[in-house]
Design goal:
Layout (H helix, E strand, L loop, with lengths): L6 H8 L9 E4 L8 H10 L3 E3 L10 E3 L8 H15 L9 H8 L4 E7 L5 H10 L6 E4 L4 H8 L6 E5 L2 H10 L3 E5 L4 H6 L7 E3 L3 H14 L3
Parallel strand pairs: 1-4, 1-6, 4-5, 6-7, 7-8
Antiparallel strand pairs: 2-3
Helix pairs in contact: 4-9, 6-7
Length: about 220
């Protein structure tokens, strides 16, 4: 399966310096390490738009402030491109993320796996570094299970995966043996929308909860 990876993604993973015998924590960025929705709200407000947080989707929920009309899909797609171009460098950290990863770094190596256009990799990395999260950043498109499998293939130690999107976690649980999957949603408003449990996944309330769970799971496995 790893052989079908996008070449840009595969090259990024192959360039990682991974210690085979050391656990690997793979963390998503948006709504796990960075406050994506709050940044998007600031971006939309400048355009007299708002996001109606009634479901875990952007399509149909970005609306004109004056009329309440939803933004058309093609306009939303173009607007998201503008958002990444203008705001990738400005997103603020999810509370507890930097401290949690710093504490975990003593027992695991850390990589950020983020769905963002490849051309913004360095900007995302600089933003994270500015918030105390200086870790390798891998840019991905679509589901993340293949990227995770490619990393796991280089390990003789546990892999931990944190994401806010159920689909990524479900794919990881199905594709990887003994992946410690953690569902973490930084924005409490979004978190309240996700009430269903994800198979094989621990639902963390916040970063201290996620950190505690990772530590306990690694200890059970002898790390």
């Amino acid at each position: 399966m790893a052989d079908s990876l996008n070449e840009i993604l595969k090259a990024q993973i192959d360039a990682l310096h991974l210690e085979p015998g050391r656990p690997l924590i793979v963390a998503d960025a948006d709504e796990v390490l960075l406050q994506f929705v709050k940044g998007l709200e600031r971006f939309l407000e400048k355009r007299n738009l708002r996001i109606d947080l009634v479901s875990y989707h952007l399509l149909g929920n970005v609306k004109e402030m004056d009329t309440g009309r939803s933004v058309a899909p093609e306009i939303l797609k173009e607007m998201l491109g503008d958002f990444f171009a203008e705001e990738t460098a400005t997103l603020t950290p999810v509370p507890g993320a930097a401290d949690g990863l710093k504490a975990l770094q003593s027992r695991a190596q850390i990589v950020v796996l983020t769905n963002i256009p490849h051309r913004y990799q360095s900007i995302r990395a600089q933003n994270l570094t500015g918030h105390g999260m200086d870790y390798p950043v891998i840019t991905n498109q679509g589901l993340k299970d293949q990227a995770l499998r490619h990393m796991q293939a280089r390990l003789d130690a546990p892999i931990v995966f944190l994401d806010d999107i159920a689909g990524h976690l479900e794919a990881a649980h199905a594709a990887l043996d003994d992946c410690i999957c953690i569902h973490l949603i930084g924005d409490p408003r979004l978190s309240a929308l996700m009430t269903d449990e994800v198979k094989g996944t621990y639902r963390a309330e916040d970063w201290p909860d996620a950190q505690s769970h990772i530590e306990s799971q690694l200890a059970v496995r002898g790390y």
